[in-house]
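stage 2 :: seqdesign
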């Protein structure tokens, strides 16, 4: 069992001081923990973490059936330092600078 929900290390890593605004860090930590074999996660936001785990497992299953060269390209893109996350409201033209 592991409790990573809203913990201070998330603040230290992300710079987000408000504990109620640490859902992203909780989800990433939970996914990482699951990949390391943790079987029980103690969290505040159960529905959100469950949804992220279900989606992650589905994507992982799908990726296992993808051709090796395509899979390698996807991994390179996801691990790229140029990968950015933006608001859905942000204009596409503003992103291509």
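stage 2 :: out
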């Amino acid at each position: 069992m592991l409790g990573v929900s809203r913990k201070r290390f998330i603040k230290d890593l992300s710079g987000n001081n408000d504990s109620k605004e640490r859902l992203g860090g909780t989800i990433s930590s939970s996914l990482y923990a699951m990949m390391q074999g943790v079987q029980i996660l103690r969290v505040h936001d159960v529905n959100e973490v469950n949804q992220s785990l279900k989606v992650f497992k589905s994507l992982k299953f799908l990726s296992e059936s993808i051709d090796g060269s395509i899979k390698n390209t996807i991994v390179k893109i996801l691990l790229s330092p140029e990968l950015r996350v933006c608001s859905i409201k942000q204009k596409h033209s503003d992103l291509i600078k």
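stage 3 :: structure notes
- The mean pLDDT is 80.
- The CA atoms of residues 15 and 60 lie 29 Å apart.
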